[in-house]
Amino acid sequence: MKILAIADEECASLWDFFDKSKVADIDLIISCGDLDPRYLSFLVTMTTAPVLYVHGNHDGKYDRIPPEGCTCIEDDIFVYEGVRILGLGGSMRYTQGDHQYTEKEMQKRVRKLRFKLFKKRGFDILVTHSPAYQLNDGRDLPHQGFQVFLDLLEKYKPKYFLHGHVHLNYARGQKRYDQYRDTTVVNAFERCIIEI
Length: 196
Hints:
single chain, alpha/beta, 6-stranded mixed sheet, 18% helix
């Protein structure tokens, strides 16, 4: 299965200069947040791939302009073609904005998923907006990652961990790909393709 992962910044070659041949072999599109909801609606309309998404910390507008035809996987395990995909959007709380959480609030969200995790026997892909704590995150509070994501990676050993939030153009040395134990970590900033 070929998956297009996207986050944070709309890709001009997929929107302004769309060419169907660029996505002809894509089976699934996953948004890690902070994208214009009309961009997601456009992609689901112009491709044959379903679009799954979690919220970023700048996605409060989704309440007014939802990404039509797309599936929100927040706080759920979505199964597509046998691949189990766990979604946990949002960032570390740094203001009173939407989709921001303290570490304890994110831990509570994960605890509520215990039965689903047991029933599905874990997951294959973790999709979040924020990175995990000290795994390609920032040291400032808005870009700091969540410790509980590391706990999930250690316990369930998914194949992939997809996140956004930390833009690759923020500073030199930002990584697109990394490894944490058995899991390949992917910063989905703008766009990238993975296979599972």
